[in-house]
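testing teh design pipeline on a random one, pls ignore if ur not involved
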C-alpha cells in the first residue's frame, strides 16, 4: 500500500530512480567490504605453486574460490579475459565478480531468478561495460539458447552452480563444443569421495522439495572427475570448505604446471556438516533410499 502511494506521488521515472539509488546504497558497501576482505586475505597468502590451498582468498566468493581462480587465470598462456557463470545470483556473492571488478574481465552472468538478474544488472553494468546479464533456467535442453548468449566458446573461466542437474548441463555444453580453460563446478560432498553418481535428470528440480534435508542434489566429486577428466581436463583441487571443484585444460598452461599440483581431492561441505551435525556418511544415510545414477568414466 505504502509502496503504491510513493509510486503515485513520485511518478514512475522518479520512483524507478529512487529504487536504483536504494539498491546501490545497499550494494556499494558490500562491494567495498568484499574488496577490502580480498585485499586483506590475499596479502596474507604465502603462495606455493603446487599447493592450491595457499592460493585461496575470498572477496566475493563464498569460500576461497576467488584466490584459486585468480591464480589459475594468471598462469594461462593465452587468456581472452572472458568468463561465464551460471548461478551468478545478484553478483554480490559468486565466483566471477572478482574477475569482473578487480580484474576488469568481460563476461556473462546467468541466473534463474529474474529479480536477482535485474538487481545484478543495475549494480554492475555501470561498473563494467563488458558484462552481460541473462535470466535463464538452465537445463540440458537450453544449450542452444546458451550458445546464443555466450560471446566466446572458450572462456577463461566457466562456473556452474545450480544445486540440481549440474552434471547434465556440463555434459551437454561440452558435447556441443563449449571448451572453457578453467571449470568450476559445485559438487555434493554428501555423496562421498569415491562414488561417481548424480541425481536422475529432472527439470525443474528443487533440492529442498526433493528431500527435506536439502542433501539430495547435484553430483559427486568423482562423478565430475569421470566426466571432465575423460574430456581432457585435469582435476586441480577442491577448495577447503568443500563446495567447489576445479578443473583445467592442460593445453592452456605451461607444460608440467598442472601435473605438479597436489590439490585436495575431497573436502566435506562445512555448511552441510553444521546443518546435519553429521559427517558425509551421516548425511548420505538420510537420502540413501533415493535413486542415483552411476556415471561412467568418459573416454574421448
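output:
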Amino acid at each position: 500500500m505504502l509502496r503504491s502511494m510513493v509510486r503515485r506521488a513520485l511518478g514512475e521515472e522518479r520512483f524507478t530512480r529512487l529504487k536504483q539509488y536504494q539498491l546501490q546504497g545497499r550494494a556499494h558497501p558490500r562491494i567495498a567490504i568484499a574488496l577490502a576482505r580480498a585485499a586483506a586475505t590475499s596479502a596474507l597468502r604465502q603462495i606455493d605453486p603446487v599447493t592450491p590451498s595457499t592460493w585461496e582468498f575470498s572477496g566475493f566468493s563464498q569460500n576461497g574460490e576467488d584466490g584459486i581462480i585468480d591464480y589459475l587465470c594468471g598462469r594461462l598462456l593465452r587468456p581472452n579475459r572472458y568468463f561465464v557463470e551460471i548461478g551468478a545470483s545478484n553478483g554480490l556473492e559468486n565466483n566471477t565478480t572478482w574477475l569482473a571488478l578487480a580484474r576488469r574481465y568481460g563476461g556473462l552472468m546467468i541466473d534463474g531468478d529474474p529479480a536477482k538478474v535485474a538487481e545484478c544488472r543495475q549494480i554492475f553494468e555501470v561498473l563494467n561495460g563488458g558484462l552481460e546479464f541473462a535470466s535463464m533456467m538452465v537445463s540440458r535442453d537450453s544449450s542452444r539458447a546458451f550458445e546464443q548468449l555466450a560471446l566466446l566458446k572458450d572462456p577463461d573461466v566457466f562456473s556452474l552452480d545450480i544445486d540440481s542437474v549440474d552434471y547434465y548441463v556440463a555434459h551437454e555444453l561440452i558435447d556441443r563444443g563449449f571448451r572453457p580453460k578453467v571449470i568450476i563446478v559445485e559438487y555434493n560432498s554428501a555423496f562421498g569421495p569415491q562414488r561417481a553418481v548424480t541425481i536422475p535428470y529432472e527439470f525443474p528440480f528443487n533440492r529442498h522439495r526433493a528431500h527435506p534435508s536439502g542433501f539430495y542434489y547435484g553430483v559427486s566429486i568423482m562423478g565430475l572427475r569421470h566426466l571432465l577428466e575423460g574430456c581432457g581436463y585435469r582435476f586441480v583441487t577442491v577448495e577447503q570448505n568443500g563446495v567447489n571443484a576445479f578443473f583445467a585444460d592442460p593445453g592452456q598452461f605451461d607444460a608440467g604446471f598442472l601435473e605438479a599440483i597436489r590439490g585436495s581431492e575431497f573436502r566435506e561441505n562445512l555448511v552441510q556438516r553444521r546443518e546435519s551435525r553429521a559427517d558425509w556418511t551421516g548425511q548420505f544415510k538420510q537420502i540413501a533410499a533415493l535413486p542415483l545414477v552411476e556415471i561412467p568414466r568418459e573416454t574421448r
